[in-house]
C-alpha cells in the first residue's frame, strides 16, 4: 500500500491577507501564497479566497460537543500542550475554549481551542500527562 506523506485542510476564507497573517503570526505557521504549515505538515492548511463571504462555512457543534472543531491536532504530553497554549496566548490567539482537563477511567485528556478570523475552530489536545 502506498504511504500518504501528509494532508492539509482546505479553507475558504473571507480575507486571504488577514488569514495568512493569523496563521503565520498567531499559529506560527510558515505561510506562502496559499499554504500555511507548521511542524513539517503536522498542521497544514491550504487557504483559498472565498468568492462570497457566505461561502465560508465553519463546522457546527456535533451532538454532545461543547466546542465545534474544524481541525484537531494532538500534542504528545500535557506539558507540550501547556507550552503551546502559552505560545498561542503570547501571539494573541482568540481562545474559544480555555484548557480543560477531563479525568476518565482510561486517563486524563486535556484540550483547548482557538478561532481564526473566519471562526474556524482549531482544537489541540493531549492524553498523556507529563
Automatic annotation (TrEMBL):
Phylogenetic placement of the source organism: Bacteria, Bacillati, Bacillota, Bacilli, Bacillales
One Pfam family named in its UniProt record: Glyoxalase
Residues in VOC domain copies: 3-127
InterPro entries xref list: Glyas_Bleomycin-R_OHBP_Dase (IPR029068), Glyas_Fos-R_dOase_dom (IPR004360), VOC_core (IPR037523)
Protein name: VOC family protein
PROSITE patterns per UniProt: VOC
Organism of derivation: Paenibacillus dendrobii
Amino acid at each position: 500500500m502506498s504511504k500518504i506523506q501528509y494532508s492539509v485542510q482546505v479553507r475558504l476564507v473571507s480575507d486571504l491577507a488577514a488569514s495568512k497573517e493569523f496563521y503565520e503570526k498567531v499559529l506560527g505557521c510558515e505561510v506562502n501564497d496559499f499554504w500555511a504549515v507548521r511542524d513539517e505538515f503536522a498542521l497544514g492548511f491550504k487557504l483559498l479566497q472565498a468568492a462570497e463571504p457566505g461561502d465560508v462555512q465553519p463546522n457546527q457543534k456535533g451532538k454532545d460537543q461543547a466546542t465545534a472543531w474544524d481541525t484537531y491536532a494532538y500534542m504528545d504530553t500535557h506539558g507540550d500542550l501547556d507550552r503551546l497554549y502559552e505560545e498561542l496566548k503570547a501571539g494573541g490567539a482568540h481562545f474559544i475554549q480555555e484548557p480543560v482537563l477531563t479525568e476518565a477511567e482510561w486517563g486524563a485528556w486535556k484540550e483547548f481551542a482557538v478561532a481564526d478570523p473566519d471562526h474556524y475552530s482549531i482544537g489541540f489536545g493531549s492524553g498523556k500527562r507529563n
